[in-house]
Design brief:
- This protein has 2 domains: about 110 residues, Alpha-Beta Complex (Aspartate Aminotransferase, domain 1); about 260 residues, Aspartate Aminotransferase, domain 2.
- About 35% of the residues lie in helices and about 15% in strands.
Length: about 425
């Protein structure tokens, strides 16, 4: 039994060492009630209040300095993206030189696959998950067609076993092993977007490399959500957006990762641009590309300053929290509280399709209504009561108590209202 009173939730909030961080984020205004509960950071993170100041700072710099803003300021535009590399690397367990901020997630996946999907007649298959996020599916299919292969034959998928919702670890590893010398690339997520399942990334990387395939990771739902050790795990590449758990605003600058072993490898092809040229000689303008021996070699264009500034603001909040360790500790506490409240208040009327083990889940919990209950109607009623969550076709409500700004009281309000709707 758990104490389901609001007073108990407030006690938990009073003991939360990260509670003060909530005031550093802009909470959206309610539409129908006195309070809005925001549980959709897995889709769009809240705005760090510091982001506004940083964007205005760059607008003022543009107004006051014009082109001189590229070099003659405390935070010049030319190397602007470099300030992201070290704090971002800390969050994902990478080296700063393996990280570059650029483009959007899907663009980065295509650019990285130009380097790491190098099919041959014998080895050209791509492995993805059966229920991949559409962008990942489109990326894989279009890359296959671009190289002259039929996705109906060369796109290999791994699916949950019948009657289950989550991918089985053994099925993933066995599929990789079974495809063997035909497999050119494994492209899987760190966290499955629909169920919230954390995949065994280290084992996937090792299995792919054992059969001679390259391995890429889509970390859209993992970065800023769970602890990772990218450099030690050794994927060939990874990419992620920054507008979900990294709270950097809609369409903000994404991140590309290339493992250190590839950074000075002349046999790795890539699509290049002027901004990827080594900084020391970039302005020599002699049209001879000089590799910087960092992930910046994949950067084609200069940084989009106004959409990169919020990334800097958000990373400051992660540093203020003490990094992913304290944030994951809170995520486990608040996740356990959410599970207990659901068990106590709604019981078997709702099914959690997200794994229960903390090692296999991040902040997101995906819920499916049982007993013929109309999930879409439940979702609509939650929205009408200013509970911000989201609906994913065909039948799942996703909620994500996010450690930087959500509270135990948020979870209490959500679960008590859900119980009331179901009653």
């Amino acid at each position: 039994m758990i104490d389901t009173s609001v007073e108990y939730a407030q006690q938990l909030d009073s003991r939360d060492p990260l509670a003060a961080l909530r005031d550093r984020f802009a909470i959206p205004r309610p539409r129908q009630s006195d309070e809005l509960t925001y549980l959709v950071g897995h889709s769009l993170g809240l705005q760090p209040k510091a982001a506004r100041d940083l964007v205005i700072e760059e607008l003022d710099k543009w107004a006051d300095l014009g082109v001189a803003g590229h070099f003659r300021t405390d935070r010049p535009w030319a190397p602007y993206h470099e300030s992201i590399a070290e704090p971002m690397a800390k969050l994902v367990g990478a080296l700063p030189r393996e990280i570059v901020a650029m483009n959007g997630l899907t663009v980065n996946l295509h650019l990285l696959m130009a380097s790491f999907y190098r099919p041959t007649a014998e080895r050209h298959e791509i492995l993805i998950e059966d229920h991949a996020f559409p962008s990942d599916h489109y990326v894989a299919e279009s890359q296959l067609r671009l190289h002259g292969y039929d996705p109906g034959k060369a796109l290999i998928t791994v699916a949950p076993r019948p009657g289950t919702d989550n991918l089985d670890r053994e099925d993933i590893l066995e599929t990789i092993a079974a495809r063997g010398e035909r497999l050119a690339l494994v492209l899987l997520p760190g966290i499955q977007y629909y169920t919230g399942q954390v995949l065994p990334m280290a084992e996937i990387v090792a299995a792919g490399h054992r059969v001679g395939a390259n391995v890429g990771l889509d970390l859209a739902h993992a970065a800023g959500n769970i602890e990772m050790s990218l450099h030690d795990w050794g994927p060939d590449f990874a990419a992620w957006c920054t507008y979900k758990y990294l709270n950097s605003g809609p369409g903000s600058t994404a991140i590309a990762y290339v493992h250190e072993r590839h950074l000075s490898n002349p046999d790795i092809p890539r699509l290049e641009g002027w901004w990827g040229h080594d900084k020391a000689s970039r302005f020599d303008m002699d049209n001879r590309f000089v590799d910087p021996n960092t992930a910046e070699a994949w950067q084609m264009s200069n940084s989009a300053i106004l959409s990169t500034a919020p990334v800097i603001a958000s990373l400051g909040e992660f540093e203020r929290a003490g990094g992913m360790g304290p944030l994951r500790a809170k995520a486990e506490r608040i996740g356990t509280y959410l599970d207990s409240m659901l068990d106590e208040l709604v019981g078997d009327r709702v099914e959690r399709i997200t794994p229960g083990s903390p090692a296999e889940r991040g902040s997101q919990v995906s819920l499916r209504m049982r007993g013929g209950i109309d999930g879409q109607s439940v979702f609509d009623q939650l929205l009408a009561a200013d509970i911000q969550c989201d609906w994913r076709f065909p039948d799942v409500i996703r909620v994500a108590p996010t450690s930087l700004y959500n509270t135990f009281s948020d979870v209490h309000r959500f679960t008590t209202l859900l119980s009331s709707i179901l009653s």
